[in-house]
Amino acid sequence: MTDGGVLTTIRTILARPSGLVGGLIVGAHILVALLAPVIVPFDPALQDVKAILQAPSAEHWLGTDRLGRDILSRTLMGGREAMLISTVSTIVAMAWGSILGIALALVGGRTDAIVMRSVDAMMSIPWVLLVMLFVAVLGTGTAALVPVLGFSYGLSVVYLSRAAALDFVARDFILAAQARGHSRWSIVRTELFPNVRDSLAVQGAMQWSWILLAVSSLSFLGMGVAPPTPDWGQMISDARGVMQLAPWALIWPMIALSSLVIGMNLLVDAWAQAIGVDRTRRKVET
Amino acid sequence: MSAPLLEARGLRIGYAQRVGTGPRVIDDVSLSIGRGDSLGIAGESGSGKSTLLLALMGVVRKGLVAQAGDVTLETRALLGQRDEDLLDLRGGRIALIPQNAAVSLTPTLRIGAQIDEALRRHSQLEALARRQRIAELLERVQLPDPAVIARRFPHELSGGQVQRAAIAMALAGDPALLLMDEPTTGLDVTTQLALLDLMIGLRQDRNMAIVCVSHDLGVLAKLCDRVAVMYAGALVEEGPAERLLSQPTHPYTAALLNSLPTLRHPGLPGAISGTPPLPSDLPSGCRFAPRCATATPECHSARPLLLARTGGVFSACIHPIADRKMLKATAKPPAFAETQTVLQVGGLFVAYGRRHGLARLLRLGRPNEVVTDVSFDLRRGEILGLVGESGSGKSTILRAIAGIQKPAAGTIVLTTREGAVTPLPGPMGERPLELLQRIQMVFQNPDSSLNPRHTILKLLAQPLQLYGRVPAAELRNRAAALLDAVQLRENFLDRYASQLSGGERQRVAIARAFAAEPDLLLCDEITTALDVSVQATVLRLVRDLAHERHVGAIFVSHDLAVVRAIADRIAVLRNGKVVEIGKAADVCERPEDPYTRTLLGAVLEPEVLQPAEGAATGQLR
Amino acid sequence: MLGIVVERIGLAFFTMVFIAIVVFAGLQAMPGDACTVHLGRGASDTALASCRSRMGLDRPATTRFFEWSGNIVKGDLGVSIQRKKPIAEIVGWRLRNTLILSGVAALMGIPLAIFLGVISGLRRDGPLDVGISSLAIFGMTVPEFISGTLMIFVFSVTLGWASGVVMAGYKAPALDLVRASILPAATLTFILAAHILRMVRSSIIEVLDSEFVLMARLKGLPRRQIIWRHVVPNALLPAISVIGLTAAWLLGGVVIVESVFNYPGLGRLAVDAVADQDLPLVQAIALLFGIIYILVNLGADLLALVLNPRLRTLRG
After folding, report:
1. Model ipTM value
2. Residues of chain C found within 8 Å of residue A140, distances taken between Cβ atoms
């Protein structure tokens, strides 16, 4: 059941309308991101002074921007860098955040209180400013963004994984394992982790979409993905000045980014419900 | 007899489904309550008794739907009406006392204001008169200082007080019929007794009719003239309380009574095998047939009707028990022969501080529950019962012995199977694995003590691997043998705890404790979360395993009758002190301490059981 | 109750001290300081050294921390490297402007969110609820820079109702700024309301399912009275501190919204300061935002304490 669980869970997610729609959107995005370099009609960075701010046409399906770059090509390619940064940052955030969070839940006492106070303090600074503080020192670019975002977003992972673990630390089976004399590590590994694994996975997916938004927002502010690499946030920022003349340059990256984030949220919603529902249904049926 | 006050006819309630009719929770139940009558509805969890009670007020919970039948109060139909059309009846002519008043009173409103709402609705009194009436009501339910209580919020009252406040609120509309849903469950026995006496007094004062739902036959026997027994959504037997409880005609009623531990017939009660069916999976014939010892093939094919028997009793059984005395299976405890001491507790003091860390920062924490100068010893194969009300420190003593709670002072000395005498270090972290193995604990709630992510095999394998270093190839056989010892089949090994019933889960927890081959077994209210019929099986297992395997056991419970049934010796605790300790029979039959006498006096049991000498019944497994 | 109030205030104060330590120590731990940021990577050692001695960066970290935090308490936030002016002076007006913007957003967003949340909770799964909840999903997922840009596109460029970009200077009179902040505040309101209404909705649904609401029904109370006396207070009171937390958390959005609309507040200043590589200024703004966050939270906590009898009467 736990082994066949992954497939069962996927099936339950896709059985819900929100899960299916979300899954299709996210799947399409991933596919496009992987295939984009092969399928784009133009080099996304190619500037064409003869084709500035062109409306959608047979040659440029979605039109061109103020530097004559092809919007379709840029939109197809524009998610790659941000998605890559999000993926790596999410792994970093989940890794340190969940290890620290679970450890704190188990250790408790003064250590827990002090560490959580400092996590609280850091989370009091809005994420944009926290990231900007780091960006100011470390500079921008993918290499700098990953540790910065991995750290900043790991803070909330600490919080959430600690809460998830605390839910179970209070249960008698942890106490029973301690009273039996199992080592701390074996309690974490065999008693605690299997119980928090699912909610951590859902958390990871959620964090991924938050980080994606953060990367795009930073690109919009000029602190994220730097040209010539195309990026949705950057494209939107770029097209703002000409939105009256060339709304197409603005709309497509907006749709691309919004659909990915909404799709991810729908998927995560269905996933969270699937895990919950699955458990209760099992109880009723037997 | 005049027209009944309330009548329910052919009531059917089932799960709401988009297509067709869903599984039934209440099936074809008819009831009639006359003015001033008192009817008790007995049933185990899942029998549908609470759903039935709500339906008597015309309410069906979300997710359920009334499929057929009607409920009439005097001349008014209650079921299927809009709430707006019943405003004058609900809380007026018919009122309900909820199971758990602490969550049934609105947290943001003062007690007085909540009673006032009912008075405004159901009386013509002016503001000043209402205030006086509130004070009268609170005084009538014997709450001290009514003016103060009226200004309190629900969370500021104790469990017994808030239950009384809920009674006062129910009385505000001067009801002709009072419904009660497990009105005393969760309260200490002495509080329960006082509340029941109050209810009896109120009923006499006002000539109210009452319908009381409870799993506790003792409560119903005290409070009600008539009793109806529910099983799997249907009434199986109904009749005058005295007659029904002394000469049940339905095998389920008989088995239920048989599974009830009582003080007057000490010894282990008889269990009912199997578990009640789920609404989605009801047997086609008699619903009790799969668990019934006297069932015949026709029992499995046709639904028996509720038919009149002698003595005003109605029962739904093809083979009613006739002219038979109640068979009370009281397997006498085997002679207790062992003399080797396994545990000595001397001068134990435990103080509960506030918790650490965040909890302390947020000022959460339990009140100081203190154990003061507790000493006792325990022999191998002996079962010591620790009994007391909430806050008596009984569980704390257990936790101190297990090393979960560090004692402030005192000694805990363990004598192992091999004869080694070892004083135990306080916290479990300081105890070596060999010592931890010797002491195994079974917790109150198996939902919480069994990891939901492990199969039963994995759960049982854990102690085997940890202590016995049992090779992987042998694990399955050893685990199956353990399951067999707790009378569970081998095919449970690959299931998860959530796929088992409550009683089965607790048996797995017991098997896991015995997997360690301990010297000492600690049982913390292990049957509290279980139905009586299931409780009997668990009690029997613990008793037999402790005796067979020469394990000393401490059995903590709030229920004196349960402790009397299982324990060889009993220690009575009050406010962290042992007020009396001695042989079970001595403590229960010749109590010396006044508090023990109070506790014994508060135990309610159907007093009309007739024992049959040396009988063993087919109801036993 | 006084004890709890004092405790909450004390806790808030400690968190502020923690923020100061984090902002200071966090930067200390990173490879680089205000001078390397200001002068860039190619700066010569002598230039760095002179910059550091000018900024006092050559002294031990603990000395500098106590000096820095001591000055903050006195209202001195240090000196901006780029602008060569006291930070307090630069920040002052813009802090006011940011407070105006977020104040307008909170005043519009919180009541609106509570209203919509209560309605959609009471009409769970009805058409109104489905509509409101779907809109809320957009508000919760679509980032500020997109919804802000869309607002400009729709209301300013297409409909011409309001000016898209704020023209007011940072010293403009408060009333002018309120007028100028309509679109940016609407953007923030949309996001804020989406988050809060979802919370209120689920709180209402939970309370509707509670035993005490069933009990009120069994007492014969009319639906209107049940909802207003039993459901709504019990759904909203526990949500107060969470609403505060969410509102404070969404302050982050202010930074981006200010940049989208060119609104002269702290957030845009922070973006400029990063571009100017003015580390002390970024540091000061981060600290200020942290303090605002703590204060908003503290306010919500104290409000909850005053209104919720459960908390109020917890201990004497």
Report:
1. 0.85
2. none
